[in-house]
Specification:
Elements (H helix, E strand, L loop, with lengths): L1 H21 L1 E3 L6 H10 L4 E8 L2 E8 L2 E7 L5 E8 L6 H10 L4 E10 L9 E13 L2 E10 L4 E6 L9 E2 L10
Length: 181
């Protein structure tokens, strides 16, 4: 019986390690050259770039001109989504009305404009907004939620931030790789 428990624990540990080596924060060395090249061409003034992997996607989080931006690219270096942090005042009024009505005790932590390319690969026509809020259920419990809205401010979906384990897996990250291009 003890051997079975040991093998089960080992299997769980190996599965967990494998899951973390595929997705999460990665070193610049693990980003394909064509993805790095496409990124560097499009975002010449990007600062403090951190790379993540999510399946077959590569995500660059960085600052440019004082704005926090997250660009998601496929393995071919094509941009499939751009998330740009914006001021709460830049959100459509309908979003603020929705949050005030449905989450009266919530505090908006972050607002982002999400752009995706249309069928011609052009950005700007497909637009959504993501709003991270912190709700206070009672004195002992707070919850972080991410609300998604369309371009007109219509509510689309909700996700609990507690469901997102992206930062829990690090994939062979070496801080000395920041200088590499």
């Amino acid at each position: 019986m003890r051997k079975i428990k040991t093998y089960a624990a080992l299997a769980i540990m190996l599965f967990s390690m494998n899951a973390c080596t595929k997705d999460g924060l990665i070193s610049l060395k693990k980003v394909p050259d064509n993805v790095k090249s496409a990124f560097n061409s499009a975002y010449t003034s990007a600062n403090d770039v951190e790379w993540y992997r999510d399946g077959d996607l590569y995500i660059a989080e960085f600052e440019q001109n004082g704005q926090e931006i997250e660009v998601t690219m496929n393995e071919n270096g094509q941009v499939i989504e751009i998330e740009t942090e914006i001021a709460v005042s830049e959100l459509p009024a309908a979003i603020s009305v929705y949050i005030a009505a449905n989450y009266p005790n919530a505090e908006i932590e972050e607002a982002e404009r999400i752009e995706q390319p249309n069928q011609n690969g052009e950005f700007g026509s497909t637009l959504n907004y993501s709003v991270e809020i912190e709700t206070e259920e009672d004195d002992d419990h707070e919850e972080e939620l991410e609300l998604l809205f369309d371009a007109n401010g219509n509510f689309l979906s909700i996700e609990s931030e507690n469901d997102d384990d992206e930062d829990n897996c690090r994939d062979d990250v070496d801080d000395d790789d920041d200088d590499e291009d």
